[in-house]
Write a structure and sequence with these properties.
mainly alpha
């Protein structure tokens, strides 16, 4: 799952509490990696980019390197 929020703790509780339709019944969820951005708008742009890639290799690299690098 890839997402952006101003309150990661709250959002994780929502996912684990089955309050999010897209992830309902698929948990429990943990945070694999989190990166901060100067603005929510910039975070959402990165989120959309990651979701459009649809490549597990790229997501595995991000989790391994602990850094989001998009070309």
């Amino acid at each position: 799952y890839i997402g952006s929020t101003l309150d990661p703790d709250r959002r994780l509780r929502e996912h684990n509490g089955d309050q999010v339709t897209a992830t309902r019944g698929k948990g429990p969820w943990t945070v694999g990696y989190m990166q901060e951005y100067p603005s929510l708008a910039q975070a959402r742009q990165i989120e959309q980019r990651l979701k459009s890639l649809k490549s597990r290799k790229i997501l595995d690299r991000i989790l391994g390197e602990r850094k989001i690098r998009l070309r």
